[in-house]
Amino acid sequence: MKEILELLEKDARLTAEQIATMTGVPASEVKKAITKAERDRTILKYKTVINWEKFGQEQVWALIEVRVQPQRDVGFDAIAERIYRFPEARSVYLVSGAYDLAVLVTARTMQEIASFVAQKLAPLESVLGTVTHFLLKRYKEDGEILDGEEKARRLPLTL
Amino acid sequence: MQNIRSPISQRVMKISPSGIRRFFDLVSSMEDVVSLGVGEPDFVTPWHISEAGIYAIEKGYTAYISNYGLLELRQELSRHLKSRYSLDYDPNSELMITVGVSEALDLALRAILDPGDEVLAPEPSYVSYMPCTILTGANFIPVPTTVENEFKVQAAEIEKRVSGRTKAILLGYPNNPTGAVMDRAGLEQIAELARRHDLIVISDEIYDRLVYGVEHTCFASLPGMKERTIYLGGFSKAYAMTGWRVGYAAAPAEFIEAMLKIHQYTMLCAPVMGQMAALEALREGEDAVKEMVMEYDRRRRAIVKGLNEIGLPCFEPKGAFYTFPSIESYGLSSDEFVERLIVEQRVLAVPGSTFGECGEGYLRCCYATSLSDIEEALERMRRFVSSL
Ligand SMILES: Cc1ncc(COP(=O)(O)O)c(C=O)c1O
Question: Regarding the domain delimited by B47-284, which CATH topology (the fold level of the hierarchy) does it fall under?
Fold first, then answer.
């Protein structure tokens, strides 16, 4: 099961038959394992990592540090949920250190992000303060290097 | 050169240039070729290893070093061979670092052979074995292996060819080009024979880490064999370090001393930055090796299944990263098959005959390439064989 998940994490387009061939596990079992993982949300989604800059579409990213006041009984979870429900929030993490929540936000312009912070995030009741860092360049995304793809520089024929 | 009488030495003239040159020229003018013709990993060197090499250069490790090679690396290798194969090699006198297994092989042969001596070696085998033997003036006596025995060499076949001039047996398992792995029992029979006929064994175990579902038996670890074995090991394949040019030889001091004599006058030393990177590989590279082996194993299953399905029967290879499918039923020589496969479907494989006469009727297909390339190659090969 672990190997099936690892393979799919690297390449979501692998078919059950391909995974079966590579692992030696019968295809019917691979299918069953995948279906089960999809049902219990071990597999959340199949996505594509896209280099939007290459496509020519501007995309602005910001990492927002959020300091919050934890609430009785629910701790940070309730405020985290208030934030992660916004579609602008691509990733939301609770972190240790000088602030509490790290929120990764994308939008088409800096203006959009600024207004998201000013209008939506900062005014939330338990938010004590925010610091916004705009991303200047994305080098590596989800394990993939965006520029300068590493092609094996091999001769086509060696003995 | 008109007025130079016989400008090239007889020995060099005896070596035929590699016949695959023309395939190389053929594909370099083409785009969209899928190559199963490589003999090295498609992974780049794990970054922590490359980083160690860069660090070495930054720190000024850019000079000659001991002919034997970096002492720390020999010490680490000594520990490595002890823990993997329970072998005791003294890092000061029984181990030397070479410019790849390529150099170690050449040194071993030159150190032990005189003109007229004979070397027995299984075929199909790695392309360097025969020419390096011939360059010493010795004779290369191939011992054919067959698919019926999964290309494991049979002790009886070796013994049949032993003569008064036989000096050594040259083994290369896991095998390039067949992917065959010797089992312990088979090696024990060869050990017994080596003892009986007082033969030296040169064992090229560069693919020792690349085995799938079976254990690699190190020849020198068999009882009584360390004293008559020259063990050749490398970094190129297991750690994806072909370009760094580092390998090593482990053998009784008498052999190493003789090999070192040649090495110090012809090579001086292997590149120090490569040796520093190799040290990092030995110390911290285990996870990377395991991950790459797992990945090769997946591709191995995919290509073996695929080849068998499209009508290119192939036994299940248990080591290295090669498959050796049979093309016998198509009535083409392996050379013709490969040439037409390139021209008609732009897939490159290596003719089995490159690796010795008994490789005729087979192809070497390397699976150290991405799964999508393997699938594309299989689909094109399917089209090709169904057109025959
Ligand atoms: C069987 C065998 N021995 C030795 C070598 C050469 O290895 P190195 O890079 O260590 O010189 C190769 C490379 O293809 C090989 O296949």
Answer: Aspartate Aminotransferase; domain 2 (3.40.640)
pTM of the predicted protein model: 0.92
Indicate the SS3 state at residue A111: helix
B99 Cβ inside 6 Å of ligand 1 = no
Backbone angles phi, psi at B34, to 5 degrees: -100, 120
Ligand 1 atom with the shortest distance to the CA of B102: 11
The reply to whether domains B10-45+287-387 and B47-284 share a CATH topology is no
Q: In A, which residues are within 8 Å of B33 by CB distance?
A: 156
Q: B10-45+287-387 has which CATH code?
A: 3.90.1150.10
Contacts of A104 (CB under 8 A, 6+ apart): A61, A62, A63, A64, A89, A90, A91, A92
Cα–Cα distance between A79 and A101 in angstroms, integer?
9
| B307-344 pLDDT per residue, tens | 999 999 999 999 999 999 999 999 999 999 999 999 99
Q: Where are the domains of chain B?
A: 10-45+287-387, 47-284
Is the ipTM higher than 0.90? The answer is no
Q: Which residue's structure tokens are 């959009």?
A: A112
